[in-house]
Design goal:
By secondary structure, this protein is an alpha/beta fold. 20% of the residues lie in helices and 22% in strands. Strand 6, helix 3 and strand 7 form a beta-alpha-beta unit.
C-alpha cells in the first residue's frame, strides 16, 4: 500500500531508462526485468525520487569523443579515472526516456545528472569529480528525510555511488537488490557489494 513507510523515508530510483535496458545503447543485462519490482516497491513509499542520466552530445564519457578509443576502455580525465561508454542517454532522445512500463506517478522529483559535458556522473548526489554536487543532499535535509532506499540501474555504478554518497552525507541507507541489476565489468559487482557493506549500507535481497 502506497505510503506505508514513514515520512522520514524516501525511495531513490536510479536511471530506469530505455538506453539501460535490453535493446538500448548501454544495456544492463536483464535490466528491464526489474521495472515491475521497482513499481511494486515504489507503491510502499509515500516519497519517491527518480534520477535520469542526461548527457549532451559529445560527452567526455563517450568513447566516440576520444579518437582511437572503444567502449569500456579506461582513460584518465581531468578528475581522474573514467570508463568510456557507448553514446547513451543523450538529451532529448528516445533512449534517455524512462522505460515505458515504469509506473511511479507519485514521484516528487526527477534529478538529472551527467549534463556537464566534461564530467560524468554516476551518483545521484555528486558528479564523478567527487566535488560537484547535484543538490540532492540539501533537498533531502531540507525536507527532513533521514533514511533512503536506493534501487535501479546499475547496481555496481549509479546505485553503488549513490549509496556510498548517501551514507557519507549522513543518511541511513539501504539498497533493494531485487529491484536493481548490475553491469559487472571485470568483477565490479562483487566489489561494489563489498564496498557498500563496508560503508554500512543495508543490502536487502
Amino acid at each position: 500500500m502506497r505510503g506505508s513507510l514513514g515520512e522520514r523515508e524516501v525511495l531513490i530510483v536510479t536511471d530506469p531508462q530505455v538506453d539501460f535496458c535490453p535493446g538500448g545503447a548501454l544495456a544492463v543485462p536483464r535490466g528491464d526485468e526489474i521495472i515491475p519490482a521497482i513499481n511494486q516497491l515504489a507503491r510502499r513509499f509515500k516519497h519517491v525520487i527518480v534520477t535520469q542520466d542526461w548527457h549532451p552530445p559529445g560527452h567526455a564519457s563517450f568513447a566516440s569523443t576520444h579518437r582511437g578509443r572503444s567502449p569500456f576502455d579506461a582513460v584518465t580525465l581531468d578528475y581522474g579515472a573514467q570508463t568510456l561508454w557507448p553514446d547513451h542517454c543523450i538529451q532529448g532522445t528516445a533512449g534517455a526516456t524512462f522505460h515505458p512500463a515504469l509506473d511511479i506517478p507519485h514521484a516528487e522529483l526527477i534529478v538529472r545528472k551527467g549534463y556537464h559535458t566534461g564530467i560524468d556522473s554516476y551518483s545521484a548526489f555528486r558528479e564523478n569529480d567527487r566535488k560537484t554536487p547535484t543538490g540532492l543532499a540539501g533537498y533531502l535535509r531540507e525536507r527532513g528525510f533521514e533514511r533512503v532506499t536506493i534501487c535501479g540501474l546499475a547496481t555496481d555504478f549509479c546505485v553503488f555511488f549513490s549509496a556510498i554518497d548517501a551514507r557519507e552525507a549522513g543518511f541511513a541507507t539501504a539498497v533493494a537488490l531485487d529491484a536493481s541489476r548490475g553491469i559487472d565489468l571485470d568483477g565490479s559487482l562483487d566489489r561494489a557489494l563489498t564496498a557498500m557493506r563496508d560503508a554500512g549500507v543495508e543490502l536487502r535481497p
